[in-house]
Amino acid sequence: MPFFGNTFSPKKTPPRKSASLSSLHTLDRSTREVELGLEYGPPAMNIGGQTWKFEEGQWITESGGNGSSRELQRLKKKNVQLEEENNLLKLKIEVLLDMLTETTVEYHLIEKEVEDLKIQHRRKK
Fold first, then answer.
1. What are φ and ψ of residue 28, in 5° steps?
2. What's the CA dihedral at 67, 73, 77, 80 to 10 degrees?
3. pLDDT of res. 71
4. In the prediction, which pLDDT does 45 show?
5. Which string of b and e fits 20-52 if b means at least 16 CB within 10 Å?
6. From CA 70, how far away is CA 54, in angstroms rounded?
7. How far apart are CA 46 and CA 90, in angstroms?
8. CA 24 to CA 35: how far, in whole Å?
9. What is the mean pLDDT of the segment spanning 83-91?
10. CA 9, chain centre distance (Å)
11. Parallel, antiparallel, or unpaired for β 50-55 and 44-47?
12. What distance in Å separates the CA atoms of residue 114 and residue 117, rounded to the nearest whole number?
């Protein structure tokens, strides 16, 4: 036997007002573009006197000329690729020299074995 009643029923909250506090929705499109700069381009920033733009997933400097910075980035990528290829070729040369050394050692061992067999054969005669 509950003292205060059978069910719990909170008071309903009043619905929220959906009116915007901003007056931007009353402006027409051209006014909004002028006021807010809604003509989107690539993001740009200025750091240390250099202007940087974000294009094709990378930050590109514009102060030295757009083409030269792209060319510089392309050359840097090519340089990294060539360094990796050079390291791979050095590794292959090292493996080939190890194989040559191993083969030379085996050849000398076999040659010595043949000489020993020749000496033993001569002694038996």
1. -75, 170
2. 130
3. 79
4. 85
5. eeeeeeeeeeeeeeeeeeeeeeeeeeeeeeeeb
6. 12
7. 42
8. 10
9. 97
10. 57
11. antiparallel
12. 5
Per-residue pLDDT at 81: 96
Name the residue type at position 87.
N
Average pLDDT, the chain: 82
Q: CB–CB of 49/63 below 8 Å?
A: yes
Q: Tokens 């083409």 — which residue?
A: 67
**HEC string for the chain:** CCCCCCCCCCCCCCCCCCCCCCCHHHCCHHHHHHHHCCCCCCCEEEECCEEEEEECCEEEECCCCHHHHHHHHHHHHHHHHHHHHHHHHHHHHHHHHHHHHHHHHHHHHHHHHHHHHHHHHHHHC
Token pair of 109 as six digits = 């061992």
Contact in structure between 51 and 63 (CB atoms under 8 Å): yes
